Amino acid sequence: FVFIPDHYLYSLPDNLNNLGFDIIVCQTLKEESEKAEDSVDMNIIQTGMKFIDFEEITDIIVVSHDKHMVHLVKEAKNRGKKVSVIGTEKISYILRQVVDMKNIHPLPFKD
User: Fold this and answer.
1) Partner of 41 at 20 to 30 A CA spacing, among 19, 64, 84, 94?
2) What is the pLDDT of residue 79?
3) 3-state class of 92 per DSSP?
4) Mean pLDDT, range 94-111, rounded to an integer
5) What is the C-alpha to C-alpha distance for residues 47 and 40, in angstroms, rounded to an integer?
6) How many Å apart are CA 33 and CA 40, to the nearest integer?
7) CB under 8 Å to 37, separation ≥6 — which residues?
8) Mean pLDDT across the stretch 66-86?
């Protein structure tokens, strides 16, 4: 599964689904009092927490550079999932600390 904010969806290669990834698009749920990015993070975390309990799911890919993903990543790893992070060069230091460096990848933008 690839959890991705909706604003990145059209920037990804068209063939990502054909490579065997299930894309979970997390919509921006913006309320007047909150930032759009905060609601995307919350949606990714809530959706991810539901999926990591399924035994048949062995790998989780989070498309983010945000430190808010640390809890999701830790919980997924505690349940034996392989976790990869795809993001920009701005991946937070805290997130880098909980993900194996070999599982951090740049965001594959369209050519």
Assistant:
1) 19
2) 95
3) coil
4) 75
5) 10
6) 14
7) 5, 66
8) 91
What CA–CA distance (Å, rounded) separates 81 from 33? 35
**pLDDT of 67 above 80:** yes
Give yes or no for a contact between 77 and 83, defined as CB atoms under 8 angstroms apart: yes
Environment class of 28 (CB within 10 Å of its CB; exposed 0-12, middle 13-18, buried 19+): middle
Q: Which residue has the tokens 């790893």?
A: 77
**Is 45 strand, coil or helix?**
helix
CB-based contacts of 11, cutoff 8 Å, min separation 6: 107, 109, 110
Q: Which of 65, 49, 52 is nearest to 107 (CA)?
A: 65
Say whether pTM exceeds 0.70: no
| Closest alpha carbon to 35 in 7, 61, 63, 3 | 7
Phi, psi of 89 (to 5 degrees): -65, -5
The string of pLDDT tens digits covering residues 34-65 is: 555 556 788 788 888 998 999 999 988 887 88
Q: Which two tokens stand for residue 8?
A: 């990145």
Contacts of 50 (CB under 8 A, 6+ apart): none
